[in-house]
Design a protein that fits this description.
Radius of gyration: 16 Å
CATH topology: Rossmann fold
Distance between the termini: 45 Å
CATH architecture: 3-Layer(aba) Sandwich
Order of helices and strands: EEEHEHEHHHEEEHEHEE
Helix content: 25-40%
Strand content: 25-35%
Oligomer: single chain
Shape: globular
Largest sheet: 8 strands, mixed
Number of domains: 1
Number of strands: 11
CATH superfamily: Vaccinia Virus protein VP39
């Protein structure tokens, strides 16, 4: 499948798939979207000294890198697992301008390490950030109460509706610890109904630039 590196409205890059007419990130701003959806409405809500995160769609590593940078500011330790069935080739990662756009030149080594490190092995990116990149399909996820937070960043419902099914959200619900949360850029009614069906309490929040709304789903605490 043909892939193109394109700039989004905030100057940060993403990958565009012409055949699917789909971007890896919002065309209105890759970094803006990541910060709004996954950091502001996800990571920033959890003040625990150590937090376990599962990302559905590791992709270009943008969400992982921004989380790494945010954790530096908050002095939190992060155990991060990123699921990706189709890893992005490193020659494409090298064209991403995230380090520059995030003004994070001091951590360029860590960004490269996130992509150079082996798959399916827990790797210490820094003293306070551990990463496990898991090469698997979302349907193969079988974690039980392992995570405090899920970044659900799969391709959109229009392109891959099976990734937004009740079966997948049941796996997400099971993967979260009691009281855990899932955040996603999505705001479709069919997605909300699937989340509620498996037990989530769903909030509709203001979306990132270019999108009116998004969802945050919470698993009941014991």
């Amino acid at each position: 499948m043909k892939r193109e590196i394109v700039k989004t409205s905030d100057g940060s890059t993403t990958i565009y798939l012409p055949e699917l007419e789909e971007n890896y990130h919002s065309k209105h701003g890759a970094i803006q979207e990541a910060k709004h959806v996954f950091i502001k409405n996800g990571f920033a809500e959890n003040k625990a000294p150590t937090i376990s995160i599962l990302e559905i769609g590791f992709g270009t590593g943008l969400n992982a890198f921004i989380t790494f940078l945010e954790a530096k500011k908050t002095n939190q330790k992060v155990n991060y697992s990123g699921i990706e069935a189709y890893p992005v080739p490193f020659d494409e990662i090298a064209q991403m301008n995230y380090v520059i756009e995030l003004q994070a030149a001091a951590f360029e080594t860590e960004f490269k390490k996130m992509h150079d490190c082996e798959w399916n092995i827990n790797v210490k990116i820094s003293d306070d950030f551990c990463l496990t990149k898991r090469k698997q399909f979302f349907s193969e996820i079988d974690d039980v109460e392992q995570f405090d937070l899920i970044y659900f960043d799969a391709f959109g419902y229009r392109v891959q509706p099976d990734l937004w099914s009740t079966e997948i959200f049941e796996k997400m619900y099971n993967s979260l610890k009691p009281g855990g949360k899932l955040v996603t850029y999505a705001a479709r009614g069919v997605v909300k109904r699937s989340m509620i069906e498996v037990g989530f309490t769903v909030e509709k929040l203001a979306g990132p630039p270019g999108k009116r709304e998004m969802f945050r789903a919470t698993k009941a605490a014991i």
